[in-house]
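Exam prep: given the inputs below (a chain plus S-adenosylmethionine), describe the expected output before reading on.
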Amino acid sequence: MIYFGNQAPFQQHGEAMVLSRRRLLGAAVCGLALPAVLPGLARAEAPARLAAGAASATALGAAVQRALHQIIDLPPVFADPLAVAMLGAGSARTLQAAADRPSRGLRAYIAMRSRHAEDQLAAAVQRGLRQYVLLGAGLDSFACRNPHPGLRVFEVDHPATQQWKRQRLAEAGITAPDRLTFVPVDFEKQRLDRQLELHGFRFDEPAFFSMLGVVIYISEEALDQTLRVVAGCAPGSGVTFSYTLPAHRLDAAARAARERSMAAVARLGEPWITFLEPETLPPRLRAAGFNRIELLDGAEGNRRYFDGRADGLRLSSSAQMATAWI
Ligand SMILES: C[S@@+](CC[C@H](N)C(=O)[O-])C[C@H]1O[C@@H](n2cnc3c(N)ncnc32)[C@H](O)[C@@H]1O
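Solution:
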């Protein structure tokens, strides 16, 4: 049994990878409108939900997992003092509904990918880098707790999600810092480089980019274009991103869970469309213009971030990240 502040207790069970219907009801409780799900998605369109002008429900799902991680997994692998506040009014009910669902492996993955990105960012800042771009930022709170003096932050997201986030911040009384610039971009329709330039990003200075939980929702064309934009930045720039293995790389149990998850996110209007294999990434990243590439799988992620935990929190074998530098 877990207690959140002075709210009613909630419970946590085993493991799953889906944004559940109940969690979405929780999302509706905390202010996210849930429009009818639109069927049919052309590959060169933003997810149907976003194209219809609704904010990303999976962005809320990830934010809920980050908030739960602060409360349930002690000590947190990824400490985010603003994670609960980002959920806004009704966060206790949202968290309670989410904690009723099994989500341990997903929570571990979402925590690890943020930790991995921010660790690499911190090392890059030490080397003198002064620009950080969050691609598909969702409700990521980094910009509002940025510990690096002089680091400019650019949050890129689909306009529908970004508008919702800005309302969220205002409602939560969190002031967007001066060093944060919002850059609305639909990766399927707009030129990321142009939008960044229009918003004051310096292509002649190195930058670090993160793209957490995004690749699976965008087309391969949009992914390659995005990678080329990063590779076109000043030397010393880099990108880290999470990605998802295709079903044939999973065992039978994981494949069955994948099918359930895919059906659930498709019903939300945010279908998973892009799956990557680790072996294909180094040539693909080199072709885009990167020269130093690091892949991190579940086993390595566990060694780095979860070893020795008393609570047994672990990544599953489906956790995958890649980082590339120029
Ligand atoms: C699962 S959420 C991840 C959010 C955040 N990175 C996190 O880890 O909490 C996916 C994000 O990708 C964004 N996204 C999906 N398709 C997009 C597109 N075509 N253009 C821009 N952003 C997109 C959504 O708006 C959402 O913020």
